[in-house]
Design goal:
Strand content of chain B: 25-35%
Distance between the termini of chain B: 40 Å
Order of helices and strands of chain B: EHEEHEEE
Structural class of chain A: alpha+beta
Shape of chain B: extended
Largest sheet of chain B: 2 strands, antiparallel
Order of helices and strands of chain A: EHEHHEEEEEHHEEEEHEHHEHHHHHHEHE
Oligomer: heterodimer
Structural class of chain B: alpha+beta
Helix content of chain B: 10-25%
Largest sheet of chain A: 6 strands, mixed
Mean pLDDT of chain A: 96
Strand content of chain A: 15-25%
Shape of chain A: globular
Strand order of the largest sheet of chain B: 1-3
Low-confidence stretches of chain B: none
Helix content of chain A: 25-40%
Number of strands of chain B: 6
Strand order of the largest sheet of chain A: 7-6-3-2-1-15
Number of domains of chain B: 2
Radius of gyration of chain B: 19 Å
Chain lengths: 342, 129
């Protein structure tokens, strides 16, 4: 009998901060088993039996955060499982690789990070039109089985019966796969606003071509800071996020022009004295940023830039967001399990 | 006309009648469409649902029928119509927005069922990866 390894962060873990079972499968283990990712999710669903999300993660590939920072792993399939099953039509989505083209780099300026920092790596972002079948054009990149909805290519998990939810941004997933550390807390107004500050890309993990750097997908005015503020989030520690933002800024990614104007990016850029395209930030985005205390006066104020080392050391203060954060070793809040199958 | 369609109130009446065809005293409940007052239902499936209900109640152990209608696709698109009404009751202005609603999938109603017979038309799914 064969076995497939998977990692669980169970509901109630991290001192009760995790509201839903979260399962992660390493794509390398699926490849080693010689099975399809859909088969792997089905095997794990049967073994785990309870309600959970599943993300299959390729740690040798890259993806992109909603605000345009390239990350060193990618969700290549995701699923919702409940009662030992996966809904035959809506329970699973496999994500197609996006081939490298000059056109993509020219159309999507944030993807210069692929050329300059991740050359040769395979790129996965959101599912293609074909991957989404039988979903309709309006549907989110989401799977559903029973109670569980796994949305935005594995970065928001919901239980639609008890209506709990957890945000699982990609750098948090990277820490989970690397057995690093995660910071878990309540998202708060800054992350709520930041989720709407996106880059424009084709086959994006969450959004596609509708919005771009300097714009807000929320377009919710002063309400943007409340739309996601109450949900728990499992994030990478802020120094990890700061390091990735700095990598992008160091190759001349300009917030508001090439990468999004999310609070995290703006605050790191401001601290390090990097240029920000303030003129390209639309009025609707300013309303949302100002609602959390980030306005032009703050960003234009004459301040002494601090060093990369200082930014990393002081990242918890510089990057806003997360209420009541607590950092945990992934090994302390997760379990490794093995699903046996014929 | 490509397909014939049944009036919505007739659909409700037909389901109740079909569920009671074998035994008139069968208790029937219908959930999930309480807010729908008018509409048309594709007639082909109305007939099949009637057949299914007769089939289900042909088992003498079954004394009650619970009919639950949920969206086939759990994530549905809706238009929010926000109407501003004058004092005299006339509508001056309306703003339309769209919302996407994800509701519990059918599996949530099936945890306690011994046997599920799925007669729905299968949707074509993406090539598995």
């Amino acid at each position: 009998m064969a076995e497939l390894k998977y990692k669980v962060i169970p509901k109630g873990a991290a001192e009760g901060r995790i509201p839903i079972n979260l399962i992660y499968i390493d794509k390398a283990d699926v490849a080693k088993a010689g099975i399809l990712m859909k088969e792997a999710c089905t095997i794990v669903a049967k073994d785990f039996h309870d309600a959970a999300s599943i993300d299959v993660i390729d740690t040798s590939a890259i993806t992109v955060t909603s605000d345009g920072i390239v990350a060193d792993c990618a969700v290549v399939a995701f699923a919702s499982v409940d009662n030992g099953k996966i809904d035959r039509e809506f329970g699973f989505i496999g994500v197609s690789e996006i081939p490298y083209t000059r056109k993509l780099i020219e159309e999507e300026p944030h993807m210069r990070q692929w050329d300059l920092l991740h050359s040769g790596k395979r790129l996965y972002r959101g599912p293609s039109y074909e991957d989404m079948i039988p979903r309709a054009a309006f549907n989110e990149t989401q799977t559903y089985t029973g109670r569980i909805a796994n949305n935005n290519t594995g970065s928001e998990v919901m239980d639609v019966i008890d209506m709990t939810e957890i945000l699982t941004p990609i750098f948090g997933l990277q820490e989970i796969m690397q057995d690093g550390e995660v910071t878990i807390g309540v998202a708060g107004p800054e992350i709520s606003v930041g989720i709407g500050m996106v880059v424009r890309e084709r086959q994006g993990r969450i959004f596609n071509w509708a919005y771009g750097a300097g714009k807000t997908a929320h377009a919710s005015g002063v309400f943007a800071k409340t739309v996601k503020s109450d949900y728990p989030a499992i994030m990478a520690p802020k120094p990890v996020l700061a390091k990735k933002i700095l990598e992008a800024l160091d190759i001349d990614m300009v917030p508001g022009r090439d990468i999004a104007c999310s609070p995290a990016i703006l605050c790191v850029a401001k601290a390090g004295g990097y240029p920000i395209d303030l003129e390209n930030i639309e009025d609707k985005a300013w309303v949302e940023l100002e609602s959390i205390g980030i306005d032009r006066a703050f960003l234009e104020a004459e301040t002494q830039p601090i060093s990369r080392e200082q930014i990393l050391a002081d990242a918890d203060r510089i990057i806003p967001g997360i209420v009541d954060p607590k950092t945990f070793k992934v090994a302390d809040i997760s379990e490794i399990r093995y699903a046996h199958y014929a | 006309m490509r397909l014939m369609h049944t009036r919505f109130p007739d659909f409700i009446a037909k389901m109740k009648a079909a569920a009671r065809l074998n035994r008139p005293d069968t208790e029937v409940t219908i959930e999930g469409m309480e807010n729908i007052k008018t509409g048309k239902v594709a007639s082909l499936r109305v007939g099949r649902v009637e057949c299914d209900l007769v089939d289900l109640t042909s088992d003498p152990e079954i004394k009650k029928v619970q009919i639950i209608v949920v969206p086939r696709m759990p994530e549905t698109a809706h238009t929010v119509i926000m109407k501003g009404i004058r004092e005299d009751g006339t509508a001056k202005r309306a703003i339309l927005e769209n919302i996407i609603l994800t509701t519990p999938a059918a599996e949530c109603e099936l945890y306690d069922v011994d046997e599920v017979i799925d007669r729905r038309t299968p949707f074509r799914v993406a090539e598995p990866k």
